[in-house]
Amino acid sequence: RKEVEQDPGPFNVPEGATVAFNCTYSNSASQSFFWYRQDCRKEPKLLMSVYSSGNEDGRFTAQLNRASQYISLLIRDSKLSDSATYLCAVRLMDTGRRALTFGSGTRLQVQP
Amino acid sequence: EADIYQTPRYLVIGTGKKITLECSQTMGHDKMYWYQQDPGMELHLIHYSYGVNSTEKGDLSSESTVSRIRTEHFPLTLESARPSHTSQYLCASRGALGQGMNTEAFFGQGTRLTVV
Questions:
Q1: In Å, how far are A21, A52, A70, B41 from A65, measured between CA atoms?
Q2: B67-109 pLDDT, tens per residue?
Q3: Does the distance separating the beta carbons of B48 and A31 come in below 8 Å?
Q4: Please, are residues B6 and B110 in contact by the beta-carbon 8 Å criterion?
Q5: CB burial class (10 A; 0-12, 13-18, 19+) of residue B109?
Q6: Interface contact B33, partner A, CB < 8 A
Q7: Looking at chain A, which residue has its C-alpha nearest residue B34?
């Protein structure tokens, strides 16, 4: 089983739609959680950190469910420019190295 | 914007050549990482470093080696390139000393390597 698993893509949605991605993690010792956005042939860029109480940044809302070991990303009022691959990332605090483990990503295509 | 730089951006090289991929950051970050990513696939950690003179292998076995002689510099070397090394290599750094645990990783723009 992969340490971090994401919804399979691609998600094809019309402009203005609300779309939600889930990401599950296998290690309960995971302590830090992030959503990254990666455009085609570009490097990942941080979209938002995910805090225990959930957090919102404009049209984006991230939530963490420790009991079920998943994080989610909700995008409201989708724009064409939201088309990208969304990667969830998890950091384990008990390994010492504190590197991020990434999911394989979910591709979002927003259509006019 | 993150101040982490990778060179070259693109490299096409023949089998058997020795290559070094450069990565530098000016943020004073102590932790640095190399990830490998094939097109449309996930990122795999191949090397990481806690600080100067500290390097460790990551999750994915790699024939590459790294060094960390200076805080800002984390080059990756392939002694003898092969077609199986064709991939994108992404360098990342995180968190200066004293910063909190939840600091994110910043990525360089990547080096797209093709070995022919």
A1: 13, 8, 5, 26
A2: 999 999 999 999 999 999 999 999 999 875 455 545 788 999 9
A3: no
A4: yes
A5: middle
A6: yes
A7: A99
In this prediction, residues B14-37 reach a mean pLDDT of 94
pLDDT tier, A59 (very low <50, low <70, confident <90, very high otherwise):
very high
Give the C-alpha separation, B70 to A22, whole Å: 39
Interface test with B, best of A98, A101, A107 (most B CBs within 10 A): A98
pLDDT at B62: 84
Cα B7 from Cα B20, distance rounded (Å): 9
| DSSP structure class, residue B106 | E
Quick one: tokens of B58?
A: 């990551």
Side chain identity at residue B115, one-letter code: V
Please report, for residues B6, B50, B79, B88, B90, the alpha-carbon distance to residue B10 in angstroms, rounded to integers and kept in the order given.
10, 27, 18, 9, 12
Token pair listed for A112: 């006019």
Q: Touching check for A55 and chain B: CB below 8 Å?
A: no
